[in-house]
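To: structure desk
From: M.T.
Subject: fold request, one chain
Message: Could you run this one when you get a chance? Sequence is below, nothing fancy, just the single chain.
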Amino acid sequence: MRNNSEQNWPILLFRKSVLKQRKFKEITGLLGQTTDLHCLDIGSDNGVISYLLRQRGGTWKSADLDEHTVDSIRGLVKDNVFQIDGRQTPFSDNKFDRVVIIDFLEHIHTDEEFIKELFRIIKPGGELIINVPHIKNSLLRRFRLAIGQTDEKHGHVRPGYTVDDLVSLLMGRFKIVSHRTYSKFFSEAIDTLMTLALDILKRGGAKSQKGRIVTGQDMKRYKKMFRMYSLVYPVVWLFSKLDALLLGASGYMLIVKARIDKT
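Reply: Done. Structure tokens follow.
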């Protein structure tokens, strides 16, 4: 039988990830209360956000693109996890009160078709939260490309979206009621260096449609490295707080809340 640390490694990793914690905070800030609601999250990486969303109440289902990510989510939340193809879902019409899309649209060529599918499965009056990379032609992005952290490597078919892109994508079906960017230079710079270190360690390792996923086997294999990172995490956290100094600068992630236009 696996011990608790092996079973809950995604949660342990989440607690040491500035970006994942900020992402969850932004999502729940727009999502609001979910008690007594029927909800769906799509694109939850290793499953930790699916797990945490279910703790907030309501009835939840989860979905993602390929078997590796689906297995990872299912390993944490156990049931009601589905594999989808970016076009259709196995859900009935007018099924959900809330749908949360987490770093998913940039992985599919069929984003327009998928928005039509979401329109079908969301109830009248329902709401949609979308979290995507925000397009920024910055020095940090150029550095990432130079060291091989390309969109293709991360499984992205496009670099991201602007607010105008999402307005156009959702037009006629959803109306954006709130939007903001987050995760500025300092947070993203730290993540870039961590990703580079992980790529060096996992060179030649298997990838999925969602790019490289950290697994439980990684946690075991690089246990000493994760322990060392845990020791320096307070410094990482403090460095990320320097984002607050970048007044007026947009972030590298974009999150919107939209309401369905269905009568």
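Reply (cont.): The domain at 4-260 is CATH 3.40.50.150 (Rossmann fold). Let me know if you need anything else for the meeting.
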